[in-house]
């Protein structure tokens, strides 16, 4: 019977899972060698982007290691990996959509406060100044403002999340807008263009490439 040493070890999937649960990194490395190629090809086909597929592949195996204590061996492990890859890709899509929506909400808010068209907000990149103003709000007010104005949640949803009344939320929003408006329209503040322009360009690029 051949003895499995560090140099020649080859485990079945069931053995791999058992060893990985115990924290065996050699088993984890074999798992990566055995399955990363197939997972990468699948992700590459779905995303049509080499770099994105590689990034998602790393995320998949990081999750495997983080969840090693609950790995199951009642079905072929490659099915489990492909399912995890699909979930990782879905999570990525959701994040891109959420980030795009937050940018749109930010642009609308900047337009509302400055009374400028959204198009000029985008080209002028006043979102960066707005983000700084939001960040300067007191912690609770900032939390309410981000949830309502940037994430688009209703007063009722935020009330349940934070355990405060809708009237308190309304008060935070009114005072938050007043504070932000004072900062945003202050004559001694300079609009910061480069940072937000790069963010917007990147999100739009990813959005167009994927969808």
Give a short overview.
This protein has 10 helices and no strands. It is mostly helical.
Looking at CATH, which topology of the largest domain would you report?
Arc Repressor Mutant, subunit A
Tally of helical runs:
10
Q: What is the C-level CATH assignment of the largest domain?
A: Mainly Alpha
Order of SSEs, N→C?
HHHHHHHHHH
Second-tier CATH architecture of the largest domain: Orthogonal Bundle
The coarse silhouette is elongated
Tell me the span between the first and last alpha carbons: 54 Å
Tally of extended strands?
A: 0
The CATH superfamily of the largest domain appears as: Winged helix-like DNA-binding domain superfamily/Winged helix DNA-binding domain
Q: Give the count of structural domains.
A: 2
Note the beta-strand portion. under 5%
Low-confidence stretches: 1-7, 117-125, 187-207
The average pLDDT score comes to 73
Rg, rounded, reads: 24 Å
The share of residues in helices is over 70%
Mind explaining what this structure looks like?
- With 211 residues, this protein is mostly helical.
- The protein has 2 domains: 81 residues, RNA polymerase sigma factor, region 2, helix turn helix motif (Rna Polymerase Sigma Factor, Chain: A, Orthogonal Bundle), CATH 1.10.1740; 115 residues, Arc Repressor Mutant, subunit A (Orthogonal Bundle), CATH 1.10.10.10.
- It is 75% helix and 0% strand.
- It contains 10 helices and no strands.
- Helix 3 crosses helix 4.
- GO terms for molecular function: DNA binding; sigma factor activity.
- Belongs to the sigma-70 factor family. ECF subfamily.
- It holds the Pfam family Sigma70_r4_2.
């Amino acid at each position: 019977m051949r003895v499995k040493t560090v140099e020649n070890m080859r485990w079945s999937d069931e053995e791999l899972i058992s060893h990985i649960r115990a924290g065996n990194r050699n088993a984890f490395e074999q798992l990566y060698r055995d399955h990363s190629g197939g997972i990468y090809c699948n992700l590459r086909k779905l995303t049509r982007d080499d770099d994105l597929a590689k990034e998602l592949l790393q995320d998949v195996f990081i999750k495997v290691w983080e969840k090693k204590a609950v790995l199951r061996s009642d079905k072929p492990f490659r099915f489990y990996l492909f399912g995890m890859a699909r979930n990782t890709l879905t999570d990525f899509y959701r994040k891109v959509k959420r980030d795009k929506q937050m940018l749109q909400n930010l642009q609308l808010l900047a337009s509302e406060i400055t009374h400028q068209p959204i198009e000029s907000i985008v080209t002028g990149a006043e979102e960066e100044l707005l983000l700084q103003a939001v960040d300067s709000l007191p912690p609770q007010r900032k939390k309410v403002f981000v949830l309502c104005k940037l994430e688009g949640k209703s007063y009722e949803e935020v009330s349940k999340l934070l355990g405060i009344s809708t009237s308190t939320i309304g008060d935070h929003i009114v005072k938050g807008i007043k504070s932000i408006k004072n900062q945003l329209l202050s004559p001694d503040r300079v609009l910061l263009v480069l940072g937000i322009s790069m963010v917007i360009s990147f999100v739009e690029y990813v959005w167009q490439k994927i969808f």
